[in-house]
Design goal:
Elements: H1 3-22, E1 26-30, H2 33-43, E2 49-52, H3 56-60, H4 63-67, E3 73-75, H5 84-93, E4 99-102, E5 106-108, E6 113-117, H6 121-127, E7 132-138, E8 142-143, H7 146-165, H8 171-174, E9 189-193, E10 202-207
The structure holds iron/sulfur cluster.
Length: 213
């Protein structure tokens, strides 16, 4: 990454962490993968039951492999040959996980976490259930405000995820949101996390890279 862009990203990460902490959400900046893993190990203790929301970022940072290493009791939604009933069970069991891992669709410099789900299982577990939530976020997910977060979903997250999932939605063909009424619509539940009541529950770890959509 260009060093000037890297510097700019770091300033935005610092500002966002500062505002997250005013909202009772702990923020971190991991400069490399070792730092990322050390932060995670500090929060999620060995032997815990852990689960994940659907996330490309967790694959790109090798967190899925780390969770599969045997250190945790991992409710693995990505295991091969799971039936729809198996997936449903994992989604429901995830509410009892000690720690839940995910990324976000966008995070504002004001310290707000914005997500859009198709099933709702990911945002539901972020909102309530697991005692701890760890969100891993690339610098590309930081936006100025909630309007920009919504626009980010319409122009990037929505169409890119629809293409990835090969959904029968207009965005998967034209490359932008048409606010569809499709059976396959992946944008059904919109959530904004403005604040946590419980200190120490939600942790956001920033990585200065382009991760996920
Ligand atoms: S609302 Fe429909 S068209 Fe818009 S991004 Fe979501 S799935 Fe695509």
């Amino acid at each position: 990454m260009n060093k000037n862009i890297q510097w700019l990203n770091e300033r935005r990460i610092e500002k966002t962490i500062s505002n997250l902490e005013k909202n009772n959400i702990k923020g971190y900046y991991a400069k490399n993968n070792d730092e990322l893993l050390n932060i995670i190990k500090d929060i999620a203790k060995e032997g815990e039951m852990v689960s994940v929301g659907g996330s490309m970022t967790l694959f790109e940072t090798n967190i899925i492999d780390f969770l599969r290493s045997g250190r945790y009791n991992f409710l693995d939604r990505y295991e091969e040959n799971l039936t729809p009933a198996d997936m449903k069970e994992i989604y429901r069991k995830s509410f009892y996980a000690d720690t839940y891992f995910s990324s976000v669709n966008a995070i504002t410099e004001e310290g707000e976490i914005f997500n859009v789900d198709g099933n709702g299982n990911r945002v539901a577990a972020m909102l309530y259930g697991p005692d701890k939530v760890i969100l891993i976020v690339g610098a590309n997910k930081i936006v100025k405000n909630l309007d920009d977060a919504v626009n980010r979903n319409k122009s990037i997250s929505g169409p890119a995820n629809a293409k990835r999932l090969n959904t029968a939605t207009p965005c998967a063909k034209v490359g932008y949101c048409m606010d569809c009424k499709s059976e396959d619509r992946i944008c059904c539940e919109y959530t904004v996390i403005k604040r946590q009541r419980t200190a120490g529950r939600m942790h956001v770890i920033f990585v200065n890279d382009i991760l996920g959509f």
